[in-house]
Amino acid sequence: MKTRSTSFCLAKDIEWENPGPGIRRQVMAYDGQLMLVKVCFEKGAVGTPHEHYHSQATYVAKGKFEMLIGDKKRIISEGDAYYIAPDEWHGCVCLEEGILIDTFSPMRADFLK
């Protein structure tokens, strides 16, 4: 497994993965301490609730989502962001076709082939 991406990570050169129905993801850039991931959602797609030991900060680049973090739900839209502490339960439902830009620390080794 590679431990870091190249310096320039061009979207046209990065494979899309399908982690669930109506969801596509590109692992854009990473090293052992940080990872940047683009996730595209079709309307109605569900980011199944889960938890992981990574810190996560996410920017909503497009669309609208119903976001669950812990026991709180909020509607978030383009231009919004959120933070998820390590081991915190979270998930989402895409209300309007959207794109999330996820960052993780440390990197998500489980996202690498």
The CATH topology label is: Jelly Rolls
Q: Count every beta strand, where a strand is a DSSP E run of 2 or more residues.
A: 8
**Helical residues, percent:** under 10%
| Structural class by helix and strand composition | mainly beta
Number of helices: 0
What integer is the average pLDDT? 96
Main pleated sheet = 8 strands, antiparallel
Give the amount of beta strand, in percent.
over 45%
What is the CATH class designation? Mainly Beta
> Number of folding domains?
1
In angstroms, what separates the terminal alpha carbons? 7 Å
Give me the strand/helix succession.
EEEEEEEE
CATH architecture: Sandwich
CATH superfamily: Jelly Rolls
Low-pLDDT ranges = none
* Rg over alpha carbons: 14 Å
Label the overall shape: globular
Can you describe this structure?
This protein is an all-beta fold and 113 residues long. The protein has a single domain (15-105), classed as Jelly Rolls (Sandwich). Helix content is 0%, strand content 58%. The protein is built from no helices and eight strands. The protein has strands spanning 17-20, 23-30, 35-41, 46-50, 55-69, 72-77, 81-84, 90-105. Strands 1, 2, 3, 4, 5, 6, 7 and 8 form an eight-stranded antiparallel sheet that branches. The N and C termini lie close together (7 Å).
Summary of the model, kept short:
The protein is mostly beta strands and 113 residues long. Helices cover 0% and strands 58% of the residues.
